[in-house]
């Protein structure tokens, strides 16, 4: 694109008034996997979705970029990029990618991710030339069941030496984040382990120790630690509260009695193991030391910063560098336009993680570290 062509195009955010123009451009650019009017309207009204438009001198839409920011993380996702077919070859795609990087950096993001069809040669050339690198594949992603190639560009340096290669497992039920996280950690230490929904439910039955205000119970740190130890793994535990957890949020006397009984049973079982339990807050230094020693840590966080729901949620720490802590989040919130791509190696600023890894009125900080199997 020459300077005159570049000056002819105005770059600005997209608004609800641009809905008709976006629909028209979408129809020109895509034969399938198009956004509907309802989807465009919803995305234009969301606080963490951003449209960046290129408008020519006649007021016509020449291209658009849709960028998603995910709450509580330092990850941005290029969800869609479209250029008017009559304006292709003028460098507009490159300009929108540069806009995406600028906007992501303004939001404190460490990386941009996107998906692309394997047969979209022009897009592959564009992303590769802009510094995006393939880091995975997502099967059966598009309407015609084609796979999506997953690309990423780090806006800061990649994580250093403390990186654990941990396979990903998506929880299949709203209350099995703990079992799903434990399965990832165990698989990272024992590649031969077969991950299945049967195992997910078995672990949940073994480790459940928390009554939620509604719905099914969740898994506490001692239950997860015991489940891993019973399968032969070396386990370490940090917890800064004694006694049964989350009793302040439970009013029913019977439920409190159950919590107490379960806690007492788990505590008795822990005494018969060699699980190393630290009666202290887990710190980022503890997590870093665990990774350096070959362990995979599970950390309990408040899901508020991810989903605006006040509930305990387990995640897996896979890497730590000077600025970010990287997580596998077992939950894939499709209503929030997330896919598995957005739940792997999620970067969270270290200052934000400190606030996130603290739950409830009790200010609970806890983690379970899974090491290779005992000999």
From TrEMBL:
It comes from Marinospirillum celere. GO terms for cellular component: ribosome. Residues 9-156 form the N-acetyltransferase domain. This is Ribosomal protein S18 acetylase RimI. Keywords: Acyltransferase, Ribonucleoprotein, Ribosomal protein, Transferase. PROSITE patterns: GNAT. The keyword Ribonucleoprotein applies. PANTHER family: ACETYLTRANSFERASE, N-ACETYLTRANSFERASE DOMAIN-CONTAINING PROTEIN. GO terms for molecular function: acyltransferase activity, transferring groups other than amino-acyl groups.
